[in-house]
Structures
1.
Amino acid sequence: MLDQPTSSITNKANAAVLVSLDFNTGMHEERLEELKQLVVSDKLVILGVVEGKCYRPNPKTFVGSGKVDEIALMLEQTGASLVVFNHDLSPGQQRNLSLRFQCQVVDRTSLILDIFAQRAKSHEGKLQVELAQLEHLATRLVRGWTHLERQKGGIGLRGPGETQLETDRRLIGKRVKLLKEKLAALQRQRKVQRRSRQRANVMSVSIVGYTNAGKSTLFNKLTRADAYAADQLFATLDTTTRKLYIPEQGDVVISDTVGFIRDLPHTLVAAFRATLEETVQADILLHVVDANNPNRDEQIKEVNKLLQEIGADTIPQIVVFNKIDLSNLLASTEGYERNEYGRISRIRLSAKTGEGLAYVRHALAEVKIKDPNEFSKESTYKKVMSGCVTAYL
């Protein structure tokens, strides 16, 4: 069996120069701040930031020649040995920049994959991250996987007329196939568990939201679990499921899921599809929002966009504005709001202090009183939820 690919970033010096260009699409400062959070989450040290405005990427180096020289100068001045782009680079662009700077160049997708590789703890999580890594790196394969040949001795491994690159691709293809088979088996196991819950008429609740919105903290408060929670991006990668008892209504099953982020790599979405099926199959979603984040409206849109991508956009939501202890939402006289059908649709709480937590239990009790399927038939309900922006606060 081939070894799991190790982190390609943290094996080298952890000093980095960041590059973030404004393509006049808006939210540049916010995107740069998010990149800094990702870099810190990957245990890297930021020694410099190169910014600029651009109309279109350079096909060879993504940035123009002047900006390439500026980055090279900053590398020389700071002594950094890593360049992190806040954009996705093509294999050719990444190779050309690495040759020019004589150091490793990492794009946004590679950075997120590296964070996932560090955070995955469960067997399934590690399989999913490895699959995403292999599928992403296979597109950038230029004699970068010769260690795969060495693990099997080399002699007799290569087929007739095969180049080293073809051999590496074939080995990666075999590993990808094996990983997909293992994940498919785990997916079937999850389906059996879900059918068992459905026969017992147990309502399924999934906690979703932008990364670092406080999902795991809320999950722990509700279920008295000890899921890992930290003030960092992608603290949770492995889905955790617990039973939650609702007084006078019985048990519901609640799941804590991986956080979303804008421009989440498609390889990750595909690899984590088995895990995200807990979200797709849920009866209701608790959409956790960081109420203290000035970009919460944009984050709500990004989460809803990703929910649509995985086919979970038709599932009813209860939007939970978390971290009110740090925001101005305390001015509100009520801790929750109802939609036009009289159901609780928005809740304000602090998962850290526990303030407003009772509203979540009350809202779930209201859903469980009726058949969740009937709840989801309220066709305009999702429109009310998707319109949950600052104006409603």
Note: Residues 164-199 form the longest helix (36 residues).
2.
Amino acid sequence: MQTYLQSLVDSFETHANSQEAVGMQKYMRDQFPFLGIKKPIREEILKHFLKEKGLPSAEFFSTLIHNLWQMPQREYQYIAMTLLEKFKKQRQEQDIDLLEELIISKSWWDTVDIIAANLVGDYFKRFPEKVFPISQKWIFSENMWLQRTAILFQLTYKKNTNETLLYEYIGHCAESKEFFIQKAIGWALRQYARTAPQSVRQFVESYPLKPLSRREALKHL
């Protein structure tokens, strides 16, 4: 696993761009250092690497993700999420513990939103019996990023959205003063409005949402 990881790191470090890194770091409000490798180049590097080395073995996969997540440059967290998406079909029930750990570690919208909509959303489709106990734990936690995930995990569900659960979680966080919670509420409602516009309109008109949440929810209605 260490050999695989080192080869992966070497592949990316040779493409580091200090000038690009300055702008990328500034865009993320200086939350993390960057190698300076933008998404199209990053995807191409990883594509060639996987073609040569293949996917990591399942035995060491979680360890590899942990190692990538602990590395300082933000691109390595993006690589970890890409690898997690490629392992969707091999997802195990206990993997929710790893996803939760990634949500609350090095937390910012750029990783949390992908984990919420793509990884957690897919996990709950595969293990529907986990939806209620896990998402309830998250929404009633005091961690803003877990709450954001509980609100956003149904972003791609469309007609399969559990409307009752969505509105319950939004209601629980509706008074939050956190920007990222208010924004998540608006985003979740705006997305669900593509499927159930009348329901969303009625909910927004009858529930005392924060102005930001309301504005975002009604943006395309």
Note: The mean pLDDT is 97.
3.
Amino acid sequence: MLRGTSLTCYRQDSILFENLDLALDAGEILLVEGRNGAGKSTLLRILSGLLRPTSGEVSYQQEPIDNVLDTFNQDLLYIGHKPGVEPHLSAEENIRYWEKLHQQETLSDLVPVIQSVGLYGYEDIPAAQLSAGQQRRVALARLWLTKEKRIWILDEPFTAIDVKGVALLQQRIQSHLAQGGCLVMTSHQPFNDILKIDHRIVLG
């Protein structure tokens, strides 16, 4: 489904990674690990098409992503390390804004989604007044809003959320994989008995 071939990335005078190959099929997880500054987030941005590698190619369904960009973008859900929420909007307003921005089907009732991410009772509070973990939950609500995004690329999705939030997110990931989706992520969370990691890349 998603493939990287001979991916190389230079940052100034240093090499973040070189001649990196990866392949990910439906129902699989790729975990990218490494120390801070090793290039994990950069690799995720390259795989999502937000950055170009110094050399190498990213392909989707055996086609370079530049050749199938519309299809690739329709099938991609990328959530970076920062929550990416509007601080002056409430949690519910942020979710509604994302729905409209990405032309998702608007739900008449957001309560089930808000409950799923543990924000019930906080939906009317401006994001600026929420904790880091709660802001992260607002961003992660996108995972419950879409059923058509086959590729999830998530940068540290478990950061700043509590045990209950981790469990809910793991359940949502398992459902996504069971429906034929795939996942690329970075994380420091242990997964030995929770999520099956099919591929690992260690940078740095």
Note: The chain has a mean pLDDT of 88.
4.
Amino acid sequence: MVTDLNAAFLPASCPLLVVKVGSSLLVQPDGTVRREWLQTLVADISARHKAGQRCIIVTSGAIALGARRLGFDKGGRASLADAQAAASVGQIVLSGIWAELLEGNSLAAAQMLVTLDDLEDRRRYLNIAATLDRLLGAGAVPVINENDSVATEEIRFGDNDRLAARVAQAAGAAGVILLSDVDGLFDRAPHLPGAVLLPTIDKIDGRVRVMVAEGSSSGMGSGGMASKLDAADIATRAGIGLVIASGLRDHPLAALEQGGPATFFAPREGGSARKSWLGGRLTVKGRIRIDDGAVQALKTGSSLLPAGALSVEGEFKRGDVIDISADDDNVAIARGLSEYDAVDAARICGHRSSELAAILGTVPRSVLVHRDQLVLL
């Protein structure tokens, strides 16, 4: 990765950076902490802080640490109950380690535990954003982890890569660094002969996703390269640059700044904050399938009209987030806030705006999803 791509992550040009640390980097296979390595990372964060850059840490490791304390098998992941119990014990240990090491560098640690719902609900998302802003303004270093002690399979991120990207959105960060156990994204599985590191990704398209599907992956934690690609998509869609770099070496942030190997995902031109939040959501309530004419209309910036809708899937209310797809494709082309509940949306599919009042018996809203509440994916 060449130096000019690192410019966006230098203290002078990146006021706020999110650094994600996976469990396999922080915790040894026997459940002990890689304290000496962690000290070098904290030293890097301290150096950036002194240079005027603020950092947010997204950390894994609570379940692994708690499992060791409780003597649980399979690293505490044999069952949801084990994972929740291990997280409850391990989170105290984990936060204590970060607080101790940051305090040793004259930095105050601030713990935040979040769930998927905290960042999917707009009001709670804005509350997290306000809290982070206040902490950073006071000079603290937020240390964030998923609240695994209460998260269930239905309401959890499942990996901290995507959590890091969503936190970066909420905080208004300019960059995200995912510290991994590989140097970045390769064109094939890194252990295969001839594997080539891709230093820059300008667009996350089908070609890139195929490479990940064919085995270019990270072995760390619960994530892997697929989750990192999802994180990159969330971040870059919000105008945030993202880097995947190795955390196996000491002083990983300094190594990256000095031109160490990594993959840089270039940010897109940012839209509104609300549309970035919509595009980065991981849960939706339903789907509307549309015809080819409506697909083209959306691409030109139009709202979704009932006349272009073919069918409705799922159960949703007015104001819920829904995906919009072409008729024969399960991949969403857009996401937005529905102007109707699922029942009424299904009733007016395919009808012109002039027909809606007769169908619904009320003065209707003229669109299914307004362009101001819609983002293309």
Note: The two ends are 28 Å apart (CA to CA).
